[in-house]
Amino acid sequence: MRLLLRSLWQDHAGAAVIETALVAPLLVIMALGVFDVSGLVARQTEIQDVAAEISQISMARPPETGDDIAQLEEIAVAAAKVDDDDVDITLLYRCDNSDTLVDDDELCTGDETSTMIQIEIEAVYTPQWVEFGVAEPVTLSVVRTSQIG
Fold first, then answer.
1. What is the pLDDT along the chain (149 residues), one digit of tens a residue?
2. Global pTM value
3. End-to-end alpha carbon distance in the chain
């Protein structure tokens, strides 16, 4: 018996197979996690790019009516691939040198009023892990405020 245990202890022929069997599942899980994180980052970047695009459009041609804002929202919805409720674009105003933004330019009593546009976009990213009950969908949000006038 002692001789059998000693020969098994010294035999390293199956060590690589056992090590691979222990490490391979961890490597697969880590790879899936990396793919999910890269998808999440790509989706967040896509939404930020859409907000930047809407900001650039509004700087080139500032919206003057509700129809102009609705048109910008339609562009954002199509570009970001989200629902209508997930995009909100509002005009805000900065009175003189105030840090506070107001939604009505009539509230500004000073000489200088700056017009701002605020773009809010929300999107939901669903990782692969949700199918296995490990994670939940992630809500991504971008808020961009730019001066347009």
1. 777 667 767 767 777 778 888 889 999 888 888 988 999 999 999 999 999 999 999 999 999 888 999 999 999 999 999 999 999 999 999 888 888 888 887 888 877 888 999 999 999 999 888 888 888 999 999 999 999 87
2. 0.79
3. 90
